[in-house]
Amino acid sequence: xxxxxxxxxxxxxxxxxxxxxxxxxxxxxxxxxxxxxxxxxxxxxxxxxxxxxxxxxxxxxxxxxxxxxxxxxxxxxxxxxxxxxxxxxxxxxxxxxxxxxxxxxxxx
Length: 108
Description:
- The protein contains two helices and no strands.
- By secondary structure, the protein is mainly alpha-helical.
- The protein has one domain (8-88).
- Helix 1 packs antiparallel against helix 2 (49-98).
- This is PE domain-containing protein.
- It comes from Stackebrandtia nassauensis (strain DSM 44728 / CIP 108903 / NRRL B-16338 / NBRC 102104 / LLR-40K-21).
């Protein structure tokens, strides 16, 4: 089996960075939702304007839902990365306790 090397501090930093990104995505989505819907009157008075407006708004909302879903998956991954960092740290500490203390003149 291949050796797994991990640095808990770097994993925790990755988790923090991803949390920041996730928050920015949610803020951006909220801002876009506030300003992105277009009233059907903006399309003019051509035939079928209502259908075009409804199609746009539907796609716009579905896109927002997809971004929300992906952000939720990312947040779940963030939680798992953070738990993994703590697990590695705990394992490192337990293994360190098993290593005999080395002193000058005393074999390890």
